[in-house]
Amino acid sequence: MPRIAIRHGRLGDPGPGDPPAAAGLTLGVEEEFLLLDPATGATLPRAAGILAADPPLPPGARLHRELRATQVEAATGVCTGARQLREQLVRSRKALTDTARLHGAVVASCGTPVLSGPSTSDNQDGRFGDIDRIYRGMVADYEACGCHVHVGVPDPETAVAVMNHLRPWLPTLLALSVNSPFDHGRDTGYGSWRMVQQSRFPGAGIPPYFPDLAAYRAEVRRLVDCGALVDESMSFWLVRPSTAFPTLEFRVADAASTVDEAVLQAVLSRALVRRALAADTAPPEMSEQVGAAALWAAARDGIDGEGVHPLQARRVPAWELVKELAGFVAPALDETGDRDLVAIVLERLRHEGSGARRQRKAVAGGLPALLATLTNQG
User: Fold this and answer.
1) What is the C-alpha separation between 290 and 16, in angstroms, rounded?
2) Which residue of 244, 293, 324, 343 shows the fewest CB atoms closer than 10 Å?
3) Separation between Cα atoms, residue 102 and residue 111, nearest integer Å
4) How far apart are the C-alpha atoms of 277 and 378, rounded to whole Å?
5) How would you classify the pairing of strands 239-241 and 182-183?
6) For the region Disordered, what residue ranges are annotated (predicted)?
7) CA quadruple 148, 149, 154, 160: dihedral sign
8) H or E element in which residue 73 lies
């Protein structure tokens, strides 16, 4: 793929005084959160009141409804660097936390709840209502939360070309993010039960190879015509061109336990896009089944134990895949000044473990320890 000039992407309104994106592509993050009862740790349907309260967010940031009334999404504005993104995430988490407290709830950043309360929904009409009607029992108690990263790209055609290069790296991004080991009070044995839940949907997982934008749109249209998708703005692939913004949207990561882990996903995603934009070779060929096996292994064990190398079709230590990813994107991280940041967060993950491991440790310490782990604002 030939090198392409970088332009700005938009996730929301940029804040005043945003520096020019001289170093590279713009960034934005959408964080999905659970609302919990501080007395029990179970999910609590308080989204409507919190959204109506309109918390004071950073410039360009927005809150949105989610599928269930126990969830809320916070989207940053357009950011040009990791420091700016981190500041927005910290401020948004604090504003949301403070407002939720006034409504008797705490805000948890995890991929699935440890304990679920009664499943309720305010979404009887509109698009969310259509989702309930089409997917039925699959979404009746679907409280899965992700950390979605938007990276600015020049145009949708380029987004599809870049997406083809990213496919082998998606399992490793998931492995770094696993933060959903529990389901209705039981330990599933997986790092990301959210990914297992998501795999039930039609067309979920690593996207197929698409020769161009027309082929991508035709496949989405076919899935809509088959009744498997609500509309053409929906797909369950883990990376896709955004239909709302001029960005490529990564949907692979569990909700991040800490702000630094959300920033890690963002800068790694941007670095992968930069490497793809600069590539002068065809995307690597990958077996669809091996790719699915790699994603499953990442969901099961995260950065612990064995993973599957998507291109070599063999089992390898999961941390070897992380080191391979870090080495691959190192030139792009140097260009944006993010290499040291990535090294620090990766070293912390290596020593302290994934969000899933930390959740398991916290559960053993009782409800106070669990809530402290799930409600990290920093």
Assistant:
1) 46
2) 244
3) 24
4) 32
5) unpaired
6) 1-21
7) negative
8) strand 71-75
CA angle 299, 301, 304 (to 5 degrees): 140
Closest C-alpha to 97, from 143, 63, 126:
63
**Best CA proximity match to 310, nearest among 327, 282, 289, 328:** 289
Contact 92, 76 (CB under 8 A): yes
Residue-wise burial string across 242-274, b where 16 or more C-beta atoms lie within 10 A, e elsewhere = beebbbbbbbbbbbbbbbbbbbbbbbbbbbbbb
* Element of type H or E holding 30: strand 27-36
The mean of the pLDDT values for the chain is 90
pTM here is 0.92
Q: Could you identify the residue written with the tokens 């599933």?
A: 188
Q: pLDDT digits over 138-196, tens only? A: 787 889 999 999 999 999 999 999 999 999 999 999 999 999 999 999 999 999 999 99
27-365 maps to CATH 3.30.590.20: yes
Separation CA 184–CA 301 (nearest Å): 20
Q: Which of 221, 277, 333, 339 is nearest to 9 (CA)?
A: 277
Provide the pLDDT confidence category of residue 124 given band limits of 50, 70 and 90.
low
Q: Other CB atoms closer than 10 Å to residue 204's CB: what's the count? A: 17
Q: Which residues pair with 192 in a beta bridge?
A: 180
CA distance 95 to 17: 21
Give the span between the Cα atoms of 304 and 116, in whole angstroms. 27
3-state secondary structure 176-187: HHCCECEECCEE
147's enclosing H/E stretch is strand 146-152
